[in-house]
Amino acid sequence: MDRTNDRRIIINEADFGGRQELLKWLGAELSFENYSGASLDALYDRLTDIFEPLTIEIIPKAKAGCSSWLHELCRVLNFAAEERKNITVKCSHRDEE
Hints:
The protein is α/β, with parallel strands linked by helices. It has a single domain (7-91), classed as Barnase, Chain D (2-Layer Sandwich). It is built from 3 helices and 3 strands, in the order E-H-H-E-H-E. Helix 2 runs parallel beside helix 3 (68-83). The protein is globular. The model has no long low-confidence stretch (mean pLDDT 84).
């Protein structure tokens, strides 16, 4: 599949103060109507309603890993990508052992 025309969203953890701020911003970026950014479950539900190609890249603040809320977001995005093959997620972090 040619993914060169994907809509691309880059999430840089350094640009956000926390999960709620990021969820609201992401909802606005994806033009979700009546989306308050209240939960990761709500985000998942909305993502699985997307049918056009979408790539989401996440860049953590620290090279060694990401905050727990960003790690949770990566998991939810990856679950949505498993459900919808039109979504590609790139989480640029390493899990700490």
